[in-house]
């Protein structure tokens, strides 16, 4: 198996099967075989994030920077690691630098927006969500994040407009229910939010690998009904 195929397999083990130990082993083997393969470092960092191993995630990124300090994905992933580690101010600072270097990478901008939102800068966050949506109009989950942000700011009517737009898209296209759960919960519709989260499990959404650490899911994780779902989600890990 080539290192490239090994990384692809490890990524699938992480994101879809949630076999974290096996995925880590495959990533590390690929790194030994071909340390110049830059996708290893960002994927490995996100694997460590999924299991709450934030120090290891930062170490993986540091290794990546040593191999290629100009690799454009690394700063964007670094923003996300700070966000999931709940160091929102560090994520904001890192996000600014990431956008200065690579303004067109939507992952970096989206996590910068999330960091702004969770550090209490809602209006700035909305501006970044909207810019990300303009730059990547096909990514419905960005609109979902914007909607949830609007709802939490008390702008329910605008949030509902976006929700209706997304539900219309859903009639003909796949929409990750994980993000719809965030909108419904922000609107106070807990039962519908839990139904969407269950649907994301049935669809085997790759985003579920972050369910245990995602600050956006803190409210839903407080509901005891989520415990059984979490056990199912991570039963393969």
Quick recap:
With 237 residues, this protein is mainly alpha-helical. The protein folds into 3 domains: 1-71, Tetratricopeptide repeat domain (Serine Threonine Protein Phosphatase 5, Tetratricopeptide repeat, Alpha Horseshoe); 72-137, Tetratricopeptide repeat domain (Serine Threonine Protein Phosphatase 5, Tetratricopeptide repeat, Alpha Horseshoe), CATH 1.25.40; 138-237, no CATH class.
What is the strand and helix layout of this fold?
Elements: H1 3-17, H2 20-33, H3 39-50, H4 54-67, H5 73-84, H6 88-101, H7 106-118, H8 122-135, H9 140-152, H10 156-170, H11 177-186, H12 190-202, H13 218-221, H14 225-233
User: Could you give the order of the helices and strands?
Assistant: HHHHHHHHHHHHHH
Radius of gyration: 18 Å
Query: What is the makeup of the main sheet?
Result: none
Count of runs of 4 or more consecutive helical residues? 14
Q: What is the count of structural domains?
A: 3
Strands, total number: 0
Mean pLDDT: 95
User: Can you give the helix content as a percent range?
Assistant: over 70%
Shape: globular
Give the amount of beta strand, in percent: under 5%
């Amino acid at each position: 198996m080539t290192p490239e195929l090994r990384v692809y397999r490890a990524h699938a083990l992480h994101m879809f099967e949630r076999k974290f130990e096996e995925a880590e082993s495959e990533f590390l083997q690929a790194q030994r075989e071909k340390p110049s393969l830059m996708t290893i470092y960002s994927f490995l960092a996100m694997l460590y994030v999924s299991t709450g191993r934030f120090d290891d995630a930062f170490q993986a990124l540091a290794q990546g920077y040593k191999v290629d300090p100009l690799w454009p994905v690394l700063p964007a992933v670094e923003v996300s690691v700070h966000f999931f580690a709940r160091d929102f101010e560090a994520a904001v600072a890192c996000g600014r630098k990431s956008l200065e270097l690579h303004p067109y990478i939507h992952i970096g901008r989206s996590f910068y927006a999330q960091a702004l939102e969770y550090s209490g800068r809602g209006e700035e966050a909305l501006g970044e969500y909207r810019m990300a949506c303009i730059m990547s109009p096909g990514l419905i989950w960005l609109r979902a994040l914007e909607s949830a942000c609007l709802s939490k700011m008390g702008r329910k009517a605008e949030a509902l407009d976006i929700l209706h737009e997304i539900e219309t898209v859903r009639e003909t296209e796949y929409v990750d229910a994980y993000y719809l759960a965030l909108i419904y919960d922000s609107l106070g519709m807990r039962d519908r939010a839990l139904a969407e989260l269950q649907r994301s499990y049935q669809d085997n959404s790759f985003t579920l690998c972050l369910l245990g650490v995602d600050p956006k899911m803190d409210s839903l994780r407080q509901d005891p009904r989520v415990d059984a779902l979490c056990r199912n989600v991570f039963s393969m890990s």
